[in-house]
Amino acid sequence: MRILGIETSCDETAASVIEEYKILSNIISSQIVHKKYGGIVPEFASREQIGAIVPIVEAALVGAETSLNDIDGIAVTCGPGLAGSLLTGLNFAKGLSLASEKNYIAVNHLEGHLFAHKLSNPEFNPPFLFLLISGGHTQLIHVMNWGEYKIIGATLDDAAGEAFDKVAKMLGMEYPGGPEIDASAKEGDPEFVKFPRALFGKGYDFSFSGLKTSVLYYLKKQEGSAVKKHLEDIAASFQKAVVDVLTDKSIDAANHLNLNRIAVGGGVSANSALRAELSAKGDSEGIEVVFPPLSLTTDNGAMIAAVGTFYLERGIFSPLGMNVYPNLEIGEVIPQ
Ligand code: KG4
Ligand code: ZN
Question: Candidates 268, 277, 295, 304: which one to mutate for ligand 1, based on the most atoms within 8 Å of Cβ?
Answer without folding.
Answer: 268
